[in-house]
Amino acid sequence: MSTMKRVLGGVLATLVGVSTALLIGAPSAYADAGPHRSRAIDEVTTGTQINTLGDTRCASCHRAHTAKSPYLLAASNQTDLCFTCHGDGGAGAATNVQSGVNNRDGGALRGGGFDAAMIDADNATKDMYYNAARNSYSATNQVIPTLAAPAAVTSSHLGGPNVVWGNGPISATVDPGTVTSASTKLECGSCHDPHGNGNYRILKPVPNNAPSGTNPVTIPDTTVKVYTTDNYWVAADEPAFDADTEFRTTQYLGATSIQDPTPVVKTVSASVAANGGVDMYLANVAAWCTTCHTRYLAPSGSWRTSSGDAVFTYRHTGENISGEVANNRNCIQCHVAHGSNAEMSARGSAVEWPGEALAPETRSTDSRLLRVSERGVCLMCHNV
Fold this sequence. Notes:
By secondary structure, this protein is an alpha+beta fold. The chain has one domain (13-32, 82-380). β13 (251-255) and β14 form a beta hairpin. It has eight helices and 18 strands.
């Protein structure tokens, strides 16, 4: 998600030299079209022609003297502004992230939606086969189909104030994470750069709620852009990987150790490398997620070895890259980015929030952005 020429741009202060040699190359085109495609030039020039820089785009979002919200926005808040194009009835973009649908062809957006999503979370399937190498049965051909129409979400990455779970360093005392306020709550611009930055999905290398001093995680943009899916179990950006050799890498970002989740550059297995490596999105997205959820990045073995944290003590592997389009033990394999309509009933799928007591009255049916109802996402891989 070749040798990772453009993946990071300074992952760790101690690896600046390595990052420069391995990860920085020719800049890609600014992500996507529309008003996000800024043409401003951050370099010394003379006689720069203004009408080539995107002068017609400013007024799409801003007002100099009659703005309705901070940053001179033309709408009452950032979310409403983004939804004028990327929402229900928005004519400026095909990607309707409000309802998780492509407005042009009706396809299901890979990241779900903030108000509704098209994940058929109740009808996930898999095939079983006898794995002779393991002397046990294994799963394959997992499918999470799409709905015919969006359904209301049960969890969303938008809004607040709420808790940024796992935000902060490993702590021996109970600390579920940072509580956001009205001024720091999650908005579209918390994760995305509204003016464009050349990165994958215009993601900010350091999201707004990341702790001070967080090292940037930059995922380079792709030439091929596919926003929809017909199988929500496929987490990788398969079209980009197949079409763009520059989007392939044999390196990825993983945790330093079980007790230290700081991302470091690692190398995929020889078998994965022999098959072309992995796409740069998969290679880096787990580390990008953990710029905010800092204690979640966990290597293999974290299920049986304590991290030393009082809340996030034993953790599922979150950095694994198998090289396949699915079955990666990676953040984005189990969770969608924007919002999920999966259902979690009180009959067994309701679980406590991190750091709370186990009493049933404290449990929540929030779907935690998972792709399958009733925590069935576990059974997509495990046979128990």
